[in-house]
Amino acid sequence: MSTKTKPPRVVAELGRPETPEETAARKAENSRNHRMRQTVNNLVFSLLATLGIVLVIVLLVPRSDTSLLPDVDYHASAAKAQEARDEVIIDPKLPDDWTSNAARLSEAEPPAVSDWYIGLITPDDQFIGIVQGFDANPTWQAQQLEGSLADSTIDVDGVTWTVYDNRDGSAPSDEGNVHYALATESGPSTILLYGTASDEDFRTVAKAIAAQVKAGAAGAAGDTQQKGGS
Description:
Pfam families: DUF4245. The protein is of the alpha+beta class. It has helices spanning about 20-60, 75-85, 140-145, 200-230, and strands at about 10, 15, 100-105, 115-120, 125-135, 150-155, 160-165, 180-185, 190-195.
């Protein structure tokens, strides 16, 4: 019994069977198209995998966002610091949308300077640091303000502050967080405000501590008079 030969494939577009050359060309074209589709699919899958990895990294890696910083009760820390020091400890009462990310009393043996520090975050996520140096000296102040030069003076609620404005790029070195600063004396304490916030926010803090600054100065004056009269 003889084996039947399969008739050549009739191609509708041609209206006739394919020639061996046309069949080979069609199969080669189909193979090329298949490889191209596989390449595109692999590219898409690789891109999706990469985006997935990036998303995981974004979700898991901590970002420098002030919302991630600790919210510190600096009033409680100030109360403890006041128990340890005779000086009036600076403790500003600010609106509720102000927060703090640090508050600490650092005690040091002379000639090093002990100080009280509060780190404040403003409502628009800018920074103001308050440093109260006890029996501080000019070298300590220059270090705290990173070599900033005095610019002018301002008066806030009866307290005169020396202004250090580095926002015009005139700082002698990289000003770091000391874009703007205020300095005043309160008896044996040197009070510094410095940071990246606006003039208005600095005035808000200066106003919030004005009574304490004046109380510290008055207390020191009273002690001096008492010693002089004894």
